[in-house]
From TrEMBL:
Its EC number is 2.1.1.-. GO terms for biological process: methylation. The lineage of its organism: Bacteria, Bacillati, Actinomycetota, Actinomycetes, Pseudonocardiales. Exhibits S-adenosyl-L-methionine-dependent methyltransferase activity. It holds the Pfam family LCM. Keywords: Methyltransferase, S-adenosyl-L-methionine, Transferase. The keyword Repressor does not apply. This is S-adenosyl-L-methionine-dependent methyltransferase. NCBIfam families: mthyl_TIGR00027. Belongs to the UPF0677 family. It is an enzyme of class 2 (transferase).
Length: 303
């Protein structure tokens, strides 16, 4: 094993934990998605049983979140968003397991060591992606847009962006910069799905042990988001948030304890998705704001 194909370390070990959760779901007869490669990748990554308590705490949240992002991808494909960027892709295998419309090109961005490890394991499986898959080793705190553009990203094509399970490991400033860069690369008709949590969630007593464990992986929960709809709107995105009770109900699963408002009060893990309108909107003059608000509603309704 060379230095570039070692099992994921540090914050990238969290990706192995998520792959384990997906592998467990794959084994269920009533699974919410199929992910046959999750177990292969998790097995190759070695023991992460020290993170089992995080998985148990999150309960079915990781499974429901996977399904939420899967459905987002399917809707994006149906809307002819044939360019996809999975930021902090970890051991995500959507390139292989979802029915992408042609000619979808999917970019996976993650830290270089994680990308090398995943590529090595998948190469040994002789599996073929269901789209054109391009891996982009890059740090989301650095100049990842340059790496993405060099890898063939086309800024004129509507793009579906995934930010699943990573914003909490970045600072507020990193996340603001990340969204600004995503937005500047997003043609009209682009979409984005994100996961984050609010400050109340960050402070839940049951999360203390998780923060402690993640701190030793250099995966500190560094940021939170009070209102994902407003955060996205500031960058020109029209967002909706998925209610955890509704999401669980739709899929016939119990509401995970850490997302159940009856148990956690105002603490929230946000799952939100948004679109960037295809229609150009003329920026409002201050005195004409009321009229423009109704135009905004009109644009919102078209999605
Ligand atoms: C919890 S995992 C989520 C992986 C994947 N999105 C999923 O849901 O299965 C977090 C991922 O973020 C990646 N990550 C953390 N910080 C990063 C950074 N600064 N730049 C790029 N990737 C990063 C890790 O390597 C890891 O793969």
């Amino acid at each position: 094993m060379n230095a570039h194909s070692r099992p994921p370390a540090g914050v990238s070990r969290t990706a192995v934990m998520i792959a384990r959760a997906r592998a467990d779901e794959q084994a269920r007869p009533d699974r919410l998605f199929a992910d046959p490669l999750a177990g292969v990748l998790a097995d190759a990554a070695g023991d992460v049983s020290d993170l089992d308590f995080v998985r148990e705490l999150a309960d079915t949240h990781f499974v429901l979140r996977t399904r939420y992002f899967d459905d987002f991808c399917l809707a994006a494909g149906a809307a002819r968003c044939t360019q996809v960027v999975v930021l902090a892709a970890g051991l995500d295998t959507r390139a292989y397991r979802l029915p992408w419309p042609r000619p979808t090109r999917l970019f996976e961005v993650d830290l270089p060591a994680l990308v090398s490890f995943k590529d090595r394991v998948l190469a040994g499986e002789r599996v073929r992606p269901a789209c054109e898959r391009v891996t982009v080793p890059a740090d989301l705190r650095g100049d990842w847009p340059a790496a993405l553009l060099a890898a063939g990203f086309d800024r004129t094509r509507p793009t579906a962006w995934l930010l699943e399970g990573v914003m909490m490991f970045l600072s507020d400033a990193d996340n603001d910069r990340l969204l600004a860069r995503i937005s500047s690369l997003s043609a009209p008709g682009s979409r984005i799905a994100i996961e984050h949590f609010n400050q109340e969630f960050r402070r839940l007593p049951q999360m203390n042990q998780v923060h402690e464990r993640f701190r030793s992986l250099d995966a500190l929960a560094n940021s939170w988001l009070a209102d994902p709809v407003r955060w996205l709107a500031r960058n020109g995105w029209y967002a909706t948030v998925a209610a955890p009770t509704r999401l669980a109900g739709e899929h016939g699963r119990p509401v995970p304890g850490i997302t159940d408002p009856e148990l956690v009060g105002p603490a929230r893990i946000w799952l939100a998705s948004a679109v960037r309108p295809r229609l150009a909107i003329t920026l409002p003059q201050k005195r004409r704001l009321p009229a423009i608000r109704s135009v905004t509603k009109l644009v919102h309704r078209t999605y």
